[in-house]
Amino acid sequence: MVESCTILIVDDEQTIRESLIDILTLEGFRVLAATNGLEAIELLREHQPDLILADIMMPEMNGYQFYQRVRQSQDCLLIPFIFLSAKGEAEDIRFGKELGADDYLMKPINMEDLISAILGKLKRFEELTLTQNGNAGLWDNGKLSDTFGSELPEALTRRELEVLRLMMLGMTNLDIAEVIFVELSTVKTHVSNILSKLGVSNRVEAVALAMRSMLDVDEA
Predict the structure, then answer these.
(1) Residue 164 CA to chain centroid, in angstroms?
(2) What pTM was computed for the model?
(3) What does the pLDDT read at residue 11?
(4) Structural domains for the chain
């Protein structure tokens, strides 16, 4: 798996950036590197990495801003994203996780922890990608509501429809949180809203209703 994976490093500190390049290259990864978020955005126009490592305090575009730009792209939506930072305050870490980042590692970086985090995130990304590819019909990039029939209320938001699709794939709330990069509590709120709007009492009934609705569309 390592030999076929590309990692994008985004860090304005040359010493750290070059050290990461050397270590990850020795581990067998292909490596791309940028000195700030704007430069990294340009790289993403031509390359699709399997994982992104990004510093937070950078000129031009900081790590948080870069993360938000990355997640605006459908092609980059599932790419694992790890923040690297010397900022160790609990509030900073909490903010990074609330944005949806997969991990948050402190500088100076323990390389064993870094490699372990990278391998874990890549394994999870591979599992999610296989799930997505195996259920392509539930991941149409067109209008989400077109997949379902008239039984589902128009009051469901786009995000709720997305969560409903993932529920239909058999994903747990924790799985869904990892896929759409939000806190577990946010997913629970979405699920609760879906159940209320559909007039059902549990996830099983919600999925069954959605499946019936999809069958109605196919038969129309």
Answers:
(1) 17
(2) 0.62
(3) 95
(4) 2-132 (3.40.50.2300), 136-219 (1.10.10.10)
